[in-house]
């Protein structure tokens, strides 16, 4: 049995619950006000085309700002998750889209990532491979796709499907806030149709073809600030996925590869914000 409380404590509890009710009502009113602004944005920007409302650079900046200013006992996971649902839902309101996911390594982590970062309003569509996800995004009016970014050595160079001028491109790397025990911490790339004016170019991703892979190649790329994050056999050589700083010119990146690698061909396949880690 619970212990009886004093009249003074009961009055204080009632006052605190009243404050919570007031805050809840204020939060709801602010969400409605935000939706009204989105209605105006739709009119001003004419974002009727599906998928045309993505702003991955702005989203990354918003999430980093939340992490930097967050204090108190409320878990950052909760604050981040609330804002991700708000951002994704209002983006979907501006221009409806689906999330296609590669579940070849398991549906659970990908579904967690999709629901945490895009909410439950945005439809979730599973596929059997990264290549299938890219193809589905390419056929869509403006959907996004997600697949693991930590695949390492791959049996198939899925990034080659991103090389065409009008092919989908990588536009983000999730989660925006990396930290131990993140509830949706599986590293994933997000692909969409090319974004003309909204892409963030802090990290650039290149599909590269080389004739061979000398032992000193990884160290040579690392000295230029670049990293090989995927590799697969290809006709006449090796296909690579390389992440490089946005400040590094493609010619300088190609020059960083040892001459013994043979002729290198680089094609940009996307970009994303620099990784933001909390320890």
Automatic annotation (TrEMBL):
Boundaries of every Chorismate mutase domain copy: 7-98
Top-level EC class: isomerase
UniProt xrefs under InterPro entries: Chorismate_II_sf, CM_dom_sf, CM_II_prokaryot
UniProt keyword list: Isomerase
Superkingdom of origin organism: Bacteria
GO MF annotation terms: chorismate mutase activity
Entry-linked Gene3D superfamilies: Chorismate mutase
SUPFAM superfamilies: Chorismate mutase II
Record-listed E.C. numbers: 5.4.99.5
NCBIfam families assigned: PRK06034.1-4
Protein name: chorismate mutase
């Amino acid at each position: 049995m619970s212990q009886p409380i004093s009249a003074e404590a009961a009055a204080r509890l009632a006052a605190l619950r009243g404050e919570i009710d007031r805050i809840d009502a204020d939060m709801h009113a602010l969400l409605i006000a935000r939706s009204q602004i989105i209605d105006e944005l739709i009119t001003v920007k004419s974002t009727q085309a599906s998928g045309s409302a993505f702003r991955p650079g702005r989203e990354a900046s918003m999430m980093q700002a939340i992490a930097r200013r967050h204090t108190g006992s409320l878990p950052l996971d909760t604050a981040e998750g609330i804002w991700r649902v708000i951002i994704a839902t209002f983006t979907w309101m501006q221009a409806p889209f689906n999330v296609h996911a590669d579940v070849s390594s398991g549906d659970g982590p990908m579904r967690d990532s999709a629901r945490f970062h895009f909410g439950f309003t945005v439809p979730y569509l599973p596929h059997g491979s990264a290549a299938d996800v890219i193809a589905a995004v390419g056929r869509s009016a403006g959907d996004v796709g997600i697949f693991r970014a930590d695949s390492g050595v791959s049996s198939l160079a899925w990034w080659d499907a991103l090389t065409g001028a009008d092919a989908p491109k990588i536009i983000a790397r999730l989660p925006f806030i990396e930290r131990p025990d993140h509830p949706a911490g599986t590293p994933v790339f997000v692909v969409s149709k090319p974004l003309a004016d909204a892409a963030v170019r802090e990290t650039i991703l290149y599909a590269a073809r080389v004739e061979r892979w000398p032992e000193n190649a990884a160290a040579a790329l690392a000295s230029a600030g670049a990293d090989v994050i995927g590799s697969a056999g290809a006709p006449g050589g090796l296909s690579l996925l390389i992440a490089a700083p946005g400040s590094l010119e493609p010619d300088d990146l190609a020059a960083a590869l040892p001459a013994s690698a043979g002729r290198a061909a680089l094609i940009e396949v996307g970009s994303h914000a620099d990784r933001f880690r909390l320890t």
